[in-house]
Amino acid sequence: MQRRTTTLIAASATGLLALGAAGYLLVDDPEETIEPVRISGVTASDTSGSGEGSGGGDGTTRSVDGLERLTGELRAGDDPDDWSVAGVDVDFGPEQWLLGDPEQADLDGDGETGPVLEELRALEGREVTLGVRYEEEDGEDEDADRDDAEVFTVDGKTYRDPDGAAPWEAAGGKGGADRDAVATAAEKAVGEGARAVDVDRSDDEDGAGWDVEVHGADGEEYEVLLDASGKVVDVRADTDKDADDD
């Protein structure tokens, strides 16, 4: 049976990180003790007003907004960016970025840091504990079920910076390709005589990549995925078109 556990951790300027790793918890009952989600590479924040951080180590000095703990079996869906834990869809990043083989952390604990998808597939079917923030739409009832969450830690390892830009946002800001270059790369990936008919920027806000519809010389339609730099990461038959034809 899956377990879904959520615990609020590390919030506001007084909710500091201790010993460069652990986020303190905010609880209504001061007598209640709850184990914190540990975040590596971050030192304690300074509240003296001097502007200088306290603590040691290699981390960056700052406070961290609240995360919640989500525990359960990690399950994969049909697409590279489709993952869930205890009935919650968990976001490890957009598809184009994941297919570009980025390396973030040794999530599976084998001593080596590999591409994110390889690390996640090694964890598939295993129970994991994630540090997450639930995605809530404007005007959503506070008591509504929360079924989407962004992932920041995996079994105590930092997956992405809780206070900084997402890694795919940073990747998108480094010399992103223009639309014409993307169309040309997509046509080349499909083959001679192919023609790009629709070029869309995926995840416009974070610049994660491109999604291009291409008509092949064989009469088939293809979906070509490219990362933010214009590198082709996947070519697939347009199954949506086949479904519409049926």
Summarize the structure in short:
This protein is of the alpha+beta class and 246 residues long. 15% of the residues lie in helices and 29% in strands. β14 (221-227) and β15 form a beta hairpin.
Percentage of residues assigned to helices: 10-25%
Major beta sheet, specifics? 5 strands, mixed, barrel
Identify the strand order in the major beta sheet: 6-7-8-10-9
Strand content: 25-35%
Q: Any low-confidence stretches, pLDDT <50, length ≥5?
A: 7-38, 41-64
* Rg, Cα atoms, Å: 21 Å
Kindly report the average pLDDT value: 73
Q: What's the β-strand tally?
A: 15
**Discrete helix count:** 5
The global form is elongated
The succession of helices and strands, N to C, reads EEEEEEEEHHEEEHHEEEEH
Gap between N and C termini: 39 Å
Structural class: alpha+beta
